[in-house]
Amino acid sequence: METEKSFRAPPGEVWQTEPFRIFFPLGALLGWVGVGQWLLYASGVSSSYSCLRHGLVQMQAFMMAFAVGFLMTALPRRTSSAAASHTELTLAAFCLVLTTAALVDDRWVLAQLGYLGLLLLLLAFGARRFLSRTAGRRPPAAFVLIPIGVAQGIAGSVLLIAYFAGGLAPWTAVFAQLLIEQGVFLSLAMGIGSLVLPLMAGGSPPADLGSSPKETYKAVAYVTAGALLFVSLLAESLGADRLGPILRAAVVAAALGFGANAWRSPGKPGLHRRLAALAVWLLPLGLLLSGLWPDYRVPSLHIAFIGGFGLLAFAVATHVTLGHLDLDEESRGRPPAVVALAFGIIAAMAARVAADASNSYFVHLGWAAGAWIVGTAIWLAYVGPKLLRR
User: Helix %, strand %, coil % for the chain, to 5?
Assistant: First the structure.
């Protein structure tokens, strides 16, 4: 986001103009809750676990916290509009914590209500800034995928509430999980990636939607990508275990490759830029393998979840943090904490993928959780003091 400095930053306190200072650390902490259950179970501290809880905490709390931190920082800057208010920041943090606490306590409906509240808050936050007549700029074409992603999250959450209340067929719960765990953040990755990945690589920000016929055609292409993504999720929930993920992999690869110029290597040095470039391709790779190898679907998907979503979230968070705090030298280098982060996440991915092929499944899950927590804890110890500086 360093080339976005040319836009006028909205007035406000540092926590309002740079909400990532709040939500990036919160996201790391919530991620520990999501993966921590495997470490506790493998070590004998806990006698139970829940795969549903793990997946929902990671996507409805951990990843959402990073998304909120990025969007509440970037959208006002892009549009030269009002910074996040104290009320918006407080409500967003409350919804994230409420969702996590409810999931840990197996209060599924309450968790979905907290998640719904966060999505509606984020939707209103963006709409007020992009649709305002006083906005200095309009969003890029790919940002049409953001409301599409939010809509999938809302639909998935409503379906889960209805399923837990009884009366819906089991396939609807599968569809709801796919919408929440893949639909939301694949849409956000394609949409936000068109803005942040070129900036990280040293390029220029994309043009505004409506600034030329070419940008209108791009918006139509991104809407089509969002529709194909939704169709692939529905198809998989109805039994197309191969076609759904393979179609999804193709859509994501095309959108990120051409729309975000991910085919090109980063034009600027910096380890976090290389990690982002790696994560971009681990996303479609994990999806593709899950379609080609349905019997090994869950570990294959963790290539996309851990190496794709997780690594990309921390790489972008590192870029935003170092860029906004004018730590250009560190941004171009290989800070030891970022090296540790990379080793921790890649080791976690490898251990999780190997777990299903081993004779010590939960031991592998425990090692994966431990590596992830250690790597992200070192990263948090590195960026945390910087985020607290005014």
Answer: 80, 0, 20
| Lookup: tokens for 18 | 């740079």
Interatomic CA distance for residues 293 and 230, integer angstroms = 21
DSSP string covering 90-155: HHHHHHHHHHHHHHHTT-HHHHHHHHHHHHHHHHHHHHHHHS-TT-SS--BGGGGHHHHHHHHHHH
Q: Any residues with CB less than 8 A from the CB of 385 and at least 6 apart, and which?
A: none
**Consecutive 10-residue runs of the chain (390 residues): their mean pLDDT?**
42 82 97 96 92 96 97 86 91 98 96 97 89 72 93 96 87 95 96 88 78 87 96 95 96 92 84 95 97 95 97 96 88 94 98 95 97 98 88
The first and second tokens of residue 8, run together, are 């006028």
Q: Hey, what are 138's tokens?
A: 């309009």
Contact 122, 150 (CB under 8 A): yes
**In this structure, what token pair is assigned to residue 117?**
């509240």
Whole-model pTM: value is: 0.93
Residues 6+ apart with CB under 8 A from 280: 189, 193, 197, 256, 260, 262, 308, 312
CA distances in angstroms from 51 to 57, 165, 180, listed in the order given: 10, 20, 14
